[in-house]
Amino acid sequence: MSDSKLAGQFFDAAIGLLQRVRDEEAGSIAAAGAAIADTVEAGGRLFAYGAGHSSLAAQDVVYRAGGLALMNLLTVPGTTGVDVMPATLGSALERVDGLASAVLDSSPATAGDVLVIISLSGRNALPVEMAQNARALGLKVIGVTSVAYAENTRSRHTSGGFLRDHCDIVLDSKIAIGDAELTSPGIEAPFAPASTVVTSAIMQSMMAAASEALVARGIEPPLLRSGNVDGGHDWNGRVMTEYRERIFYRH
Questions:
Q1: Please, are residues 174 and 198 in contact by the beta-carbon 8 Å criterion?
Q2: Whole-angstrom Cα distance, residue 47 to residue 39?
Q3: DSSP-assigned states of every residue in 25-83
Q4: Sheet holding 46-50: strands in order across?
Q5: What pLDDT sits at residue 161?
Q6: In the 8-state DSSP scheme, what is residue 245?
């Protein structure tokens, strides 16, 4: 069987996007890492939020081997994945005003914490309101989004603003509007989205930058090890015990 031409084209597109982000967003990624390190050093907590498929990259940095133990998932019921039925409800909930403020008010997030908000388009009410309210509460907000949407689409939030307008630090994923890298004769719709690959890479690079910043300050990064390697469970138990007041996925 010969190799798939389209599969190769997708890899080329994804690699190209990753290279662009590495080169063009390096300063913002370093700034995000420093902000996370500041919060860890100061005794604050870390949260990540993403709606729909953007939640995949948020979940990718929570309770995982090689990740910071202090990163918690901020969940909005019905929007965190496609397990809600019908799946289309999640998309509808992203456009509901007031939902983000209700979630923040009932969450453990407080002034001095960091909240990473992931939204590819950054145009729906939920991520925009989440960023607005989080900053009003005194959180530092890091936004991971595609700036192309803010420049070429209309906001669905009453303010007319996008996620990028309400963040302390913005990381641009460079994903084109529509989130589909390929087209081909005989296939009616664009296909092969790369946003998950690129956004997850941004999140992991941010965690790496944070660990680097912590070590430079003489602080051991509170990282988790794989439970599938010898000593991993004991290591993780010690980390979770030491930082138990800042870890919420165990409660």
A1: yes
A2: 11
A3: SHHHHHHHHHHHHHHHHTT--EEEEE-TTHHHHHHTTSS-TTSBTTEEE---TT-SSTT
A4: 71-73, 46-50, 114-118, 140-145, 169-172
A5: 80
A6: G
